[in-house]
Design goal:
Layout (H helix, E strand, L loop, with lengths): L2 H11 L6 H13 L14 E10 L5 E7 L4 E3 L2 E3 L7 H13 L12 E7 L9 E10 L15 E5 L11 H12 L2
Length: about 180
């Protein structure tokens, strides 16, 4: 088993369950990440892991979002795990830097995170669904994001005024991640 596969399994097994929805998502993820690595890479099949970063400002009143070109919605920065990634957190930070220019360095254990298995449209090609593991972190409120080749737009959004174009259940997920980040 690879270190990345072991990290995915550890996070799935340790996912905090505080609702029926949490229990259902952990069971779903566990069905993909059993005794072996599971689908940690894009080449592991149409259903595979991704990593993302829920980035908040120090006041916990704003979140950094990117406009996803294929999905046509605002969402937390993230993407596919790559062979050089040592952990899900490292992959999420790499994706954050690639998509927004924000590079906080590292995330300390333990950290708050989110599990979200979502189906994808035909616009995503051979990817049928992503098993996303989103990590939560706080960065300086004056951190200026940069639009990159991987993002159409990047902005800080007030949590009480999120954009209309977000994925299903996004508002609930943000509230849950925020509650885990600041109990």
């Amino acid at each position: 088993m690879s270190a990345l596969g072991a990290d995915v399994r550890r996070l799935v097994a340790g996912f905090p369950v505080s609702s029926e929805d949490d229990a259902a998502v952990r069971t779903d993820f566990a069905s993909f990440f059993g005794d072996d690595d599971g689908p940690v890479a894009r080449d592991d099949g149409p259903h595979h892991a991704t990593a993302s970063a829920f980035v908040f400002d120090p006041s916990l009143t704003r979140i950094l979002l990117v406009f996803h070109g294929k999905g046509r919605f605002w969402v937390q920065p993230g993407g596919h795990l790559e062979p050089g990634d040592a952990s899900v957190a490292e992959a999420a930070l790499r994706e954050l830097a690639e998509e927004t220019g924000v590079a906080p360095g590292s995330i300390e254990e333990p950290y708050a995170y989110d599990l979200d298995h979502h189906a994808l449209s035909a616009a995503f090609g051979r990817c049928a669904s992503h098993l996303d593991i989103g990590v939560a972190l706080v960065v300086a409120g004056d951190t200026a994001p940069v639009v990159s080749a991987e993002s159409e737009d990047v902005r800080w959004w007030p949590l009480d005024d999120l954009p209309v174009d977000v994925p299903p259940q996004f508002h609930r997920r943000v509230r849950t991640v925020l509650s885990r980040l600041s109990p």
